[in-house]
Amino acid sequence: MTISDSVVYHYLAIGKLGRGEVVKLFLIDAGINFEERLYRRDDTWPETKEKLKKQGLTRNGQVPALEYKGLVLTGHIPILRFLSRDLGRYDGNTSEDKYLVDLISDIYVDWRVHWVTNLKGPNREYKETTAPQYYDLIGKYYADREGPYLLGDEVSYADFAVYVSIDNDARTGTLPDTLPESITKFKAAFEARPNIIDYIKQG
């Protein structure tokens, strides 16, 4: 297949839920212009998935996929890492910074495995136990520096994943009634970022 030099974002037409939203939010914040191709998650998806595989846009049938500078990138967190390195920002400056960003990203990935159980309705065990434990844990890391972001006053790609976790929990009715102060502070600062403030306000 021929991959365009333009940036093309492939994901499911499921609103702001899921892994792809993390990538989309990052692209908007970074000021990267992109074309968006969304696919219905219905009885046409199996056929669409096979077409995407044949086109070389995904090897395992999963999205998001991103066409970027002649490459096809898959895996939402690896996509963020690649873009951060390519842009020379969003990844911290020191080895400790990069460790923290990777660590929080891994904690987020573990969270998402549990979160998907809420897509057919709120999971009581998740809401009462898993979600509070997740926010309590990441809240401790956000509190280690003065914030509002994980690395202090510098945003990182992990912040996009954490923000989408908060947003997705709110959309599934599984967000804890009270969040750690460090996370509340982060959320307010993140939602005020110039490039994404209007997009976030769209709800």
Short description:
This protein has helices spanning 20-30, 45-54, 76-87, 95-115, 124-143, 157-171, 181-191, 197-201; strands spanning 8-12, 35-39, 65-68, 71-74. The chain has 203 residues and is of the alpha+beta class.
| Helix-strand pattern | EHEHEEHHHHHH
What's the story with the biggest beta sheet? 4 strands, mixed
CATH class of the largest domain: Mainly Alpha
Which CATH-level-2 architecture of the largest domain?
A: Up-down Bundle
Quick one: overall form? globular
Strand content: 5-15%
GO molecular function, one term: glutathione transferase activity
Pfam families: GST_C_3
Protein name: GST N-terminal domain-containing protein
Domain GST N-terminal: 7-91
Give an account of the 3D structure.
InterPro entries: Glutathione-S-Trfase_C_sf, Glutathione_S-Trfase_N, GST_C, GST_superfamily, Thioredoxin-like_sf. GO terms for molecular function: glutathione transferase activity. It holds the Pfam family GST_C_3. Residues 7-91 form the GST N-terminal domain. One of its GO terms (biological process) is glutathione metabolic process. With 203 residues, this protein is an alpha+beta fold. The protein has 2 domains: 8-87, Glutaredoxin (3-Layer(aba) Sandwich); 95-197, Glutathione S-transferase Yfyf (Class Pi), Chain A, domain 2 (Up-down Bundle). The protein has 8 helices and 4 strands, in the order βαβαββαααααα. It has a 4-stranded mixed sheet with strand order 2-1-3-4, covered by helices on one side. A hairpin with a 2-residue loop joins strand 3 (65-68) and strand 4. Helix 1 (20-30) crosses helix 6 and helix 5 packs across helix 7 (181-191). The N and C termini lie far apart (36 Å). The mean pLDDT is 94.
